[in-house]
Design goal:
- By secondary structure, this protein is an alpha/beta fold.
- The longest helix has 15 residues.
- The radius of gyration is 17 Å and the shape is globular.
- The N terminus is likely disordered.
Amino acid sequence: MKKIALFLIGCCLMIALPAQASVELKDLEVAVRALGFTNNPPTGKLNIGIVYSPNVSSSVQEAENLQKLLGGGLQVGNLFLKPIMIKINEADNADVGLFFLTQGVGIDGRKLLPASNKKPIVCITTDISQVIAGACVLGVKSHPKVEILVNRAAAAKSGTKFATAFNMMITEY
């Protein structure tokens, strides 16, 4: 009886606690392929800045996981991505051609805007709230189905223009 009670408590806790979604390789591949629909798609070798908030443990953990996942780099089409971890308050000086903003940074996500708009560098994320807030241009979700979200204002500020045909495949904010 005690084992059954413990099992039921464990099941209830699993249902009650939200699952922490982490970025997957497919998310990044979808985002990079979406960049192929821009007016000036990136090619060759490109440093991708994995931007995280050092004060948010889930953000740090996701950055570390993504760094491990990418290892020495990732080839997607004709683009080779080399990962570099970047603290959000150091993004202005980052030598990257693309930003990936981790989940959980909250309002700190807006700290990335000056760096993204100055260079200009596209910001991608799986944290859809950051796309809606305008901190990132492109948001992707690969589960349960592929979704691509674009913040039109953030895209304009970063100088990113997407092909007309691409607009039929995305949700815009």
